[in-house]
Amino acid sequence: MHAGLEERAAFAIRQANENDLTPITRFDEMGGSRQQEIVNGCCLVAEQHGQVVAYASLQPSGLLGQPLLSYLCTAPTARRQGIGRQLVEAIQRIARGRMLLSSTEDWCVASQKIFTALGWRKIGELAGVNKDGSTEYFYAIDLNTKPED
User: pTM value?
Assistant: First the structure.
Protein backbone atom coordinates (compact mmCIF):
# COMPACT_ATOMS: atom_id res chain seq x y z
CA MET A 1 0.00 0.00 0.00
CA HIS A 2 1.19 3.52 -0.72
CA ALA A 3 2.61 5.17 2.41
CA GLY A 4 0.29 8.17 2.06
CA LEU A 5 -2.79 5.94 2.10
CA GLU A 6 -1.60 4.11 5.21
CA GLU A 7 -0.99 7.42 6.93
CA ARG A 8 -4.42 8.75 5.97
CA ALA A 9 -6.22 5.71 7.38
CA ALA A 10 -4.52 5.85 10.81
CA PHE A 11 -6.87 6.89 13.59
CA ALA A 12 -7.31 6.39 17.33
CA ILE A 13 -10.48 5.95 19.37
CA ARG A 14 -10.74 7.44 22.85
CA GLN A 15 -13.21 8.75 25.42
CA ALA A 16 -14.51 12.18 24.46
CA ASN A 17 -13.82 15.18 26.68
CA GLU A 18 -15.14 18.77 26.87
CA ASN A 19 -12.46 19.98 24.43
CA ASP A 20 -14.04 17.78 21.74
CA LEU A 21 -17.35 19.70 21.66
CA THR A 22 -16.17 22.37 19.22
CA PRO A 23 -14.58 19.96 16.72
CA ILE A 24 -17.65 17.70 16.86
CA THR A 25 -20.00 20.60 16.03
CA ARG A 26 -18.05 21.21 12.80
CA PHE A 27 -19.28 17.94 11.26
CA ASP A 28 -22.17 16.79 13.48
CA GLU A 29 -25.23 16.17 11.32
CA MET A 30 -27.38 14.90 14.19
CA GLY A 31 -28.41 18.22 15.68
CA GLY A 32 -28.36 19.08 19.35
CA SER A 33 -25.30 19.02 21.56
CA ARG A 34 -23.12 16.13 22.69
CA GLN A 35 -22.19 17.95 25.91
CA GLN A 36 -24.27 15.83 28.30
CA GLU A 37 -23.10 12.59 26.69
CA ILE A 38 -19.49 13.72 27.10
CA VAL A 39 -20.05 14.77 30.73
CA ASN A 40 -21.66 11.38 31.42
CA GLY A 41 -18.72 9.52 29.83
CA CYS A 42 -20.98 8.07 27.12
CA CYS A 43 -19.27 9.44 24.02
CA LEU A 44 -16.27 8.14 22.09
CA VAL A 45 -14.35 10.04 19.43
CA ALA A 46 -12.02 9.00 16.65
CA GLU A 47 -8.98 11.16 16.00
CA GLN A 48 -7.02 11.27 12.77
CA HIS A 49 -3.83 13.34 12.62
CA GLY A 50 -4.76 14.95 15.95
CA GLN A 51 -8.21 16.03 14.70
CA VAL A 52 -11.56 14.66 15.90
CA VAL A 53 -13.20 13.21 12.78
CA ALA A 54 -16.01 11.03 14.19
CA TYR A 55 -17.97 10.23 17.32
CA ALA A 56 -20.39 7.66 18.70
CA SER A 57 -22.66 8.02 21.73
CA LEU A 58 -24.12 5.36 23.97
CA GLN A 59 -27.08 5.59 26.32
CA PRO A 60 -26.40 2.80 28.84
CA SER A 61 -30.11 2.12 29.48
CA GLY A 62 -31.49 3.99 26.52
CA LEU A 63 -34.33 1.86 25.16
CA LEU A 64 -36.36 -0.67 27.14
CA GLY A 65 -33.53 -0.78 29.68
CA GLN A 66 -31.06 -1.89 27.02
CA PRO A 67 -28.02 0.12 25.90
CA LEU A 68 -28.65 2.26 22.84
CA LEU A 69 -26.08 3.38 20.29
CA SER A 70 -27.78 6.73 19.89
CA TYR A 71 -25.44 8.65 17.58
CA LEU A 72 -22.76 7.77 15.06
CA CYS A 73 -21.33 10.49 12.84
CA THR A 74 -18.17 10.74 10.75
CA ALA A 75 -16.88 13.91 9.11
CA PRO A 76 -17.37 13.78 5.32
CA THR A 77 -13.60 13.94 4.73
CA ALA A 78 -13.03 10.85 6.91
CA ARG A 79 -15.75 8.55 5.56
CA ARG A 80 -15.19 5.16 3.89
CA GLN A 81 -12.08 4.42 5.98
CA GLY A 82 -13.60 2.05 8.55
CA ILE A 83 -13.77 4.66 11.30
CA GLY A 84 -17.52 4.31 11.85
CA ARG A 85 -17.22 0.54 12.04
CA GLN A 86 -14.40 0.80 14.60
CA LEU A 87 -16.49 3.16 16.73
CA VAL A 88 -19.44 0.75 16.65
CA GLU A 89 -17.13 -2.12 17.64
CA ALA A 90 -15.82 -0.01 20.55
CA ILE A 91 -19.39 0.67 21.71
CA GLN A 92 -20.13 -3.05 21.42
CA ARG A 93 -17.20 -3.80 23.76
CA ILE A 94 -18.61 -1.32 26.29
CA ALA A 95 -22.10 -2.90 26.06
CA ARG A 96 -20.75 -6.48 26.22
CA GLY A 97 -23.06 -8.85 28.04
CA ARG A 98 -26.21 -6.98 26.98
CA MET A 99 -28.47 -6.51 24.00
CA LEU A 100 -27.35 -3.37 22.12
CA LEU A 101 -29.91 -1.43 20.10
CA SER A 102 -29.68 1.32 17.51
CA SER A 103 -31.55 2.85 14.60
CA THR A 104 -30.84 4.64 11.35
CA GLU A 105 -32.75 6.28 8.53
CA ASP A 106 -33.67 4.26 5.45
CA TRP A 107 -31.38 6.47 3.31
CA CYS A 108 -28.32 5.97 5.55
CA VAL A 109 -26.86 2.99 3.72
CA ALA A 110 -23.42 3.41 5.36
CA SER A 111 -24.82 2.70 8.86
CA GLN A 112 -26.93 -0.17 7.55
CA LYS A 113 -23.81 -1.74 6.00
CA ILE A 114 -21.87 -1.39 9.27
CA PHE A 115 -24.66 -3.04 11.25
CA THR A 116 -25.04 -5.88 8.76
CA ALA A 117 -21.28 -6.51 8.57
CA LEU A 118 -21.05 -6.72 12.37
CA GLY A 119 -23.93 -9.19 12.71
CA TRP A 120 -26.70 -6.86 13.82
CA ARG A 121 -30.22 -7.82 12.81
CA LYS A 122 -32.97 -5.51 11.64
CA ILE A 123 -35.76 -5.75 14.23
CA GLY A 124 -38.30 -3.28 12.90
CA GLU A 125 -39.08 0.00 11.24
CA LEU A 126 -41.30 3.03 11.62
CA ALA A 127 -42.39 4.46 8.29
CA GLY A 128 -42.32 8.21 7.76
CA VAL A 129 -41.40 9.17 11.35
CA ASN A 130 -38.43 11.40 10.54
CA LYS A 131 -38.75 15.12 9.74
CA ASP A 132 -37.72 14.40 6.14
CA GLY A 133 -40.41 11.72 5.85
CA SER A 134 -37.91 8.86 5.83
CA THR A 135 -38.38 5.53 7.56
CA GLU A 136 -36.38 4.68 10.69
CA TYR A 137 -34.87 1.17 10.74
CA PHE A 138 -34.17 -0.42 14.14
CA TYR A 139 -31.30 -2.84 14.72
CA ALA A 140 -30.10 -5.07 17.56
CA ILE A 141 -27.13 -7.24 18.39
CA ASP A 142 -26.99 -9.69 21.28
CA LEU A 143 -23.68 -9.19 23.06
CA ASN A 144 -24.38 -11.69 25.83
CA THR A 145 -21.33 -13.79 26.52
CA LYS A 146 -21.78 -17.53 26.74
CA PRO A 147 -20.25 -19.29 29.75
CA GLU A 148 -17.28 -21.51 29.02
CA ASP A 149 -17.99 -25.27 29.12
Answer: 0.86
